[in-house]
Amino acid sequence: LHDYSAVPRGRFLGEFEQLVLLAVAHLGDEGYGVTIRREIEARTGHEVAVGPLYATLERLEAKGWVTSRAGESTPVRGGRARRHYRLEPAGVRVLAEARRTHERMWKGLVLGRPAR
Amino acid sequence: MTLRGGPRPPRFAAWLLARTVPERDREALLGDMTEEFAVRAAVSPHAARAWYRRQVAGSLVANVARWRPSPRAFRRKGDSMGRSLAGDLRFAARTLGRNRWFAAAVVGTLALGIGASTVVFSLVDGMVLNPFPYPQPDRLVTIGSEFPKLGRELSFFENLSPAEFRDLARDTRSLRDVVAWDMGHRQVASSGAPEQVFTAFWWGDAFATLGLPPALGRGFSAAEVHRGERVAVISHRLWQTRFAGDAGLLGRPLHVNGVPFTLVGVMPPRVLVYDTDLWIPMPVSPEGFPRGQRQFQVLARLAPEVSLAEAQAELGALASRTEAAHRQALPEYEGWRLRAVTWTEANVRTLRPAATVLAGAVAFVLLLACANVATLLLARSSSRRREIAVRVALGASRKRLLRQLLVESLALALLGGMAGTALALAGVDGMAAALSELRWLPGEPAVDARMLLFALCASLAAGVLFGLAPALHAVRDQVQGALRVEGSASTASVGRLRLQRTFVGLEVALATVLLCAAGLLFHSFLRLQRVDRGFDSRGVLTFRLTLPRERYDAAAVQAFFRQLVARLAAHPAVSAAAAGSQFPPMAFSRTQLRVEGTAAAGADELPSAFSTLVSEGYFRTLGIPLLRGREFAADDTLGRRAVAILSESAARRFFGGVDAVGRRFRMGGDGEGPWYEVVGVAASAANRGLDRAPEPEVYTSFAQDAGGWNQLFVLARTAGDPRALVPDVRAIVRALDPEQSVYAVQTVEQAFAALALPRRIATGLVGGFATFALALALSGIYSVVAFAAAARTREIGVRMAMGAGASEVRGLVVRQALPPVLAGIVAGLAGALAAARPLQALLFEVRGSDPVTLGAVSALFACTALLAAYGPARRASRLDPVRALRAE
Q1: How many Å apart are CA B549 and CA B217, to the nearest integer?
Q2: What would the pLDDT profile of B610-623 be if each residue is shown by its tens digit?
Q3: Which of A49, A55, A74 lies nearest to residue B55, judging by beta carbons?
């Protein structure tokens, strides 16, 4: 019905997209499905499901922000190859832009202590 | 390392994931899952499977949303067909998007129906129908015994003596591989600190009887058992958690209570008998025990070609022979019976009533969901008549229209199916987690793929059938007179209204049955809450300790527990502490009594009672009131006169109306042993749980126990939360002996709650189903009344123009709902009476046909039904007659 890769997702980077991009950035050459998920889970404390992760990675790749290459296959993976992801310069740019946007939005803002 | 047959991802979830993952990510994603599952399973196979199911449930929607219809699939029947099907799909998506609430109602109803039925049937199959992984479970039997003379019903535990076991093994032809077994606690260490492990002791080759060899290494043979060899087999769980899955341990020594054993095997995952982690030969030959001392269980296989009934007949003959031979010496043999029962049945019979009720309730829920989907689709079809008329007028073919409506219903049903599948996966997971606390339960729920498939098919059929039926109607209708002005009471809408009413009646009937069941269960629940426990069960922490006989003789055991209780009592948060061999509601140990001045035989029933060893302060700690006489005192020690305290029911049963204090009795069936003098009578505590009357109980002083009873529960009454005391308890025990560890830590309240759990699950689920059913039935009533009112708009306008008042109009509309609701309630009450029998086993002091509950439930239901009908009626009564007459 919908070709999600072709649908523009608005001007701003989605929250989950941002988390995935940041995780890929942290991992350098070590980024693949398992490590990306663990990275996000360890830093956010929330469990991440594989399905949405791969859907997001596909989108990020279609936009040229990450690239993937086939990795090695090991017996512990049932002989299935890994797919490694790497952050591309376009991805670096979009992350930097997202951060600047956030900082501009926060600038000069003082919120009360959140109620507990 | 992984083991052959080691932990695997849950089968159904893995299958589902492989089917739904988009092709481009299949290899990477499935590889990731396999890799991480292996890592997690090494820590805990159970948690790993739960994780896997969560992952699949969380991924379904994202995976399916990424499917792209492959152009080739559509091109098979020519280009235009493919394009128009894609168009249908797009159109369906748009229509459903515009009617979001309708789509959400259908999808939600289907999801709940599919999810609930799959969860419940998975539960019933995994826990009750097929809980054990042994091959040919219907041939694996345990031998139960009944002693009417002792008032003992059929029991399967600690129910046979060594001599009786020998008779069974030697003198029956219908049983083979007969083994006796017992359970207890042992300390296990290979290196490092020892650990308390629940252990099974086997007399015979259990691996042959169960039909499962160890997954690693070997079992032990009957000959090894008889020779008294020190060999051990451990569970897969213990191997993983304690020994890190090291296969090199086989053949190495394993210290059991400090004695070296040789580890010869590791059982496959999940093959546990009552949560035992260590299997060793029975340490002493059963031959040494007297015939009347029953402390074993027996397992056997039916011999080939022998039926359970034939085995039963042979056991009957054996019991008669034994009775004739030994009745003189052991009067409890009079009328005793032996019964072969499948191992599965013996273990699940307490769960069966709850399982039956749940399975029945959930079948109703599935039926109700289908009926509600039908009502929703019928109601919707009427609002689309004009759209269809326009399309027919513009030249749409009948086939084309049907296909489009079919695609729409299918899309709805599929969405509902997907949501239902996700719900089922998550639900089974939640259930497995809730039940994993109850470690004595044999089975483990796993998603029942057959049931899921059945529920999916049922909902798909309901969606398609009722999505299409109105479509056929509409098409036939429109072909007759396309674009005809809609009549206020055209035949088609009358027919549809009748069908809708039938469905509403069905929904009301199903909901009535469920509401009655929920009402009865809730009524029992309230009754159970009011049962007097006979003591103050709140705020008491309990834990158990087993001191190894190898290091502790009788005197040392006494000293250890005396010190432990004293130190605990000195803790600032503890107001009283004591020790006992059992505590309510979990009494299990019984004895026969000989009361002074009464004949041993002759009476209808020989006196028997729970016998409990208790330390000084036991009654004060539990808050059991002392009715007469005194508590045990510090000078009731070994060598002094043996004293006992009776529960009120024991005093009444054995000494009639007279004061029991000062009277004497002996323990055991042989009439030997010391005389005990009754020094006090205590209130009867609920020693068998809340739903069964307390059994007579005899308390004797632990300080006077010469037998060296080495495993006791310790009880501590605290002011605040008892669980907060646990770290201090462990520290106190460590200070006394660093090698001992406490286990079975729980509060007395938790023990009561665990006993009530099957009933609570049944009550909660049936209550949830009834609420769901009520909501569906009310929405059905609402929609049928609203539809009827809309169909009669013009008539209502005429009536109001002629002077009918608002209340008359309201009455007219509400009356539309009365026949199906009343008929439904009557049919539902009949159904509830029919369901009373299976429900009865779960009820407490409430009859399944309890008129108060049934009457209250149906009256309440009728009132809410009228309220649901009142909404549309009010709207109709506020019509502007002029506008109503001009309507359409």
Answers
A1: 30
A2: 999 999 999 999 99
A3: A49
